[in-house]
Amino acid sequence: MNAIDPIHAEAQGIRLSGVTKSYDAKAVTIPPMDIEMRAGEFTVILGPSGCGKSTLLQMIAGLERVTGGTISIGGREVQDLEPKERGLAMVFQNYALYPHMTVAQNIGYSLRVAGIQRAERDARVKAVARMLGLADFLHRKPGQLSGGQRQRVAIGRAIIREPGVLLFDEPLSNLDAQLRQDMRLELAELHHRIGATSIFVTHDQVEAMTLADRILILNKGRVEQFDTPKTIYSRPASIFVAKFIGAPPMNILPVSGDGRALRFGNGKVFAASPLKGEFLLGIRPESIVLDRHGPIRAQLRHREDLGSHMILTAAFDLVDLRIALPFGSAEPQQSDLHLHFPRECLHLFDVEGRRIEADFHLEYAN
Ligand SMILES: Nc1ncnc2c1ncn2[C@@H]1O[C@H](COP(=O)(O)OP(=O)(O)OP(=O)(O)O)[C@@H](O)[C@H]1O
Ligand SMILES: [Mg+2]
């Protein structure tokens, strides 16, 4: 396939250099940002509401101007180009379909504009509609569809030309859980097939973990971490990231070091370490081991059975620890719990919440 094929473009790399955005003089929405997405890479942007996800996507799309910096797509600077000159397609939070056109016409619109023959157009529209579960609605108008069906038409319209770059802003947010799951698989297959460089904004961490080659975690417009789902989960760069990925979120316990040992707030030693000062220790609920001989004692306060696993809440050293037990594991019979924190599952952060790699080995003492 070559770049001028009207219905399939090669994936393009995207580079942002010093890109900033201020909607007004008083506030900076995106402080200078340098990031690069490789050609064909699937990036998921994750972050709390208002952190700048849509702003970032709209600057790449050309719907918002950058306040400073450059954006290049396939090596070509695009920040001053119109959206249609950037070689990308998008599905946004507030997608607008053409109300007077049928579903088939909406999906096939860009092919018609590109002058693709009717027979080919119809075949492609049918194939896309089948994939999106819209085959029975091709003759309806958008006003006769549910929100979720309309959202799928918007996706169909964006993907039909198989562009080199695809931008999605929460494209699955109007769908029910089952449809969302189905669409997630369809999108993963679609990406596999057309291989466009894709940027996908979502609030859903399952979507992020399953779709992304890399996840970009934004906090107030800044990049907290940009890495593979595996690394984001196993080596979060900050407490912010650690608490954003994983449900329930990572447990965070204050600890202090005197140069020889790290102690919990209750004064009990849990590790030998040369660290001095205050730190925060992290452990995921699923990493805590219930162990009759475990050195850490906690008081069970609550249990929630979620079917596939059980979440225990237990009081330990001024905090409530969350412990996740997989289905079928032995449940505690009494409220006095004995726990073990495996060394390889412990994360250490400074008081600002930044990850630190520190040497310490477990040495519990009561
Ligand atoms: N057109 C605008 N004019 C002024 N401020 C804006 C504009 N659009 C967004 N903002 C502000 O910029 C910040 C980032 O908004 P943005 O829409 O990018 O967030 P988001 O991460 O997409 O949030 P959500 O998850 O709620 O969609 C917010 O504080 C928002 O109020
Ligand atoms: Mg948004």
Automatic annotation (TrEMBL):
UniProt domain ABC transporter: residue ranges: 14-245
Any single GO CC term annotated in Swiss-Prot or TrEMBL for this entry: ATP-binding cassette (ABC) transporter complex, substrate-binding subunit-containing
Xref: InterPro entries: AAA+_ATPase, ABC_transporter-like_ATP-bd, ABC_transporter-like_CS, ABC_transpr_MalK/UgpC-like, Mo/tungstate-bd_C_term_dom, NA-bd_OB-fold, P-loop_NTPase
SUPFAM superfamilies per the UniProt record, alphabetical: MOP-like, P-loop containing nucleoside triphosphate hydrolases
Any one Gene Ontology molecular-function term assigned to this protein's record: ABC-type transporter activity
Domain of life: Bacteria
GO biological process, one term: glycerol-3-phosphate transmembrane transport
Classification via Pfam families: ABC_tran
SMART domains: AAA
Keywords noted in UniProt: ATP-binding, Nucleotide-binding, Transport
Family: Belongs to the ABC transporter superfamily.
Name of the protein in its database record: sn-glycerol-3-phosphate ABC transporter ATP-binding protein UgpC
Natural source organism: Paracoccus alkanivorans
